[in-house]
What we know:
alpha+beta, Hypothetical Oxidoreductase Yiak, Chain: A, domain 1, 7-stranded mixed beta sheet, 3-stranded antiparallel beta sheet, 41% helix
Amino acid sequence: MRISAQDLTAAATSILAYAGKNQDAAARVAARLVSANLTGHDSHGVGMIPAYVEGILAGQLVPDAEARIVEDKGPFLLVDGGQGFGHVIAEQAMGMAIERAKASHFAMLSLRNSFHLGRLGDWGAMAAEAGFICILYANVQSSRPLVAPFGGSDARFVTNPYCTAIPATDKHPMFLLDMATSTIAMGKARVADLSGKQVPEGSVIDPEGNPTTDPSVMFSDPAGSLTTFGQHKGFGLALLGDILGGSFSGGGAYLPERAVPARIVNNMMAILIDPNVFGSAQDFGVDVDSYTDWVKASPPAPGFDAVQLPGDPERASASDRRENGIPVDPGTITQLIEAAQSVDVPQADIAALMSGDA
């Protein structure tokens, strides 16, 4: 089923508004979720809504919460999210950091205790659109660990994403590297399981630590685990997410005692740097343009149309999906309908979602 971005946003807003009783927050979160779908990151799109509804009903997600400054030391900020909608909290906190970076050429934001932040690239892009290089580390605390350490056979942490964004130049769009430190995001395993597909080889292990392409092991009891990308390399970055995003903020790294049902807490470190801090932003942009041209001029390998830089696939996906609609698998539709029913969304709205005419 393909649903227009406008209709999918309306459906998402309706479910979240009935669940959280906060229309403004619901609209802001829905817009970010659908943006993730548009860019091809369905793992961070409307498929997350059932988990958000579950979090609200369990008291683990506080829809009215706003970002609160805990420590203010000029360009250094420690912010608490009060278990609020991560899309709302992160936008508020990043806005604070951007103002500090404008004044000091630099800012360091430590954000703790936010519900799911959504697509980390949104916050890197927000800083880059304001003119700053942005480096982000984040960790995840949820009801159970999902990712096995390199050399281990069971899960010990979650998908701990990493992101770097570099502002657009005169010739080229924003560079946006946003990735889970697991081989695939948990949401991609969820989408594969709901749509009856296999996951890539090497991305999942079963409860005994054996490689498998069956995503259902992630939802069994005992459960399997995701692997880290690049073996020890992704493992190292995942540890930094927990240490710099979690431990440094006071939100904590993943530990069993922090595993609470219906809980998806993110902590984040964001570093903002003014590319003109030394008065050389123009030269920086020229060099980035020359380098980008050089890299992209590599003749395509068999099976590829062209070399793509981080951010290119997302822009292509967004163009296609704006024109042709966003594909939503039947399993996700079913879960969205169940979430809507659990918070008393009117049957007419649910019927529209079921038919694809949301």
